[in-house]
Amino acid sequence: MKALLTFLSITIALCWLANCKTADKTVLPPAPAATPDPIAADRTRYLDRLRKELAGKEKMQADSVFQNLKKLNKVPVGRLLNIMDRWGETLGVSCEHCHVPNEWASEVKQPKEITRQMMSLVERVNQDIQSIEAIKSERAGVSCYTCHHGEAKPARRPK
After folding, report:
1. What is the number of alpha carbons within 13 Å of residue 91 lying toward its C-beta?
2. What is the pLDDT of residues 117-149, one digit of tens each?
């Protein structure tokens, strides 16, 4: 039995090596390029334009540059744009999901108010987590990604 296993192992190894020599001569086509994410590209286009328009104002307080900020009004403009980009990535959406382009203060779109309420929810949950004695980590907490995983509407159960 041991001799048979040794023979089979050697035979398999030789067949594999023979195929490797043949495969070396074969030219494989290049791997297809990754498909660009159109939503991320859209977000980048808006944010690049805003960053260009706001050049030199990145460190200014957001409410001195933007109108109708009900949350994040005290953060620097540059940080606010980074936060918005991160939220878009986390929810898999573009700026147009919450905003009317070029009318950023508009309240027409409901997701803008939902986002404000979700921010408050995340703040409350993160405060409550700190009061759980069994969790000793300073890094314990939740974020938008905890539930959303790149989807605008979080799944109620795993897919």
Report:
1. 22
2. 999 999 999 999 988 888 877 778 999 999 999
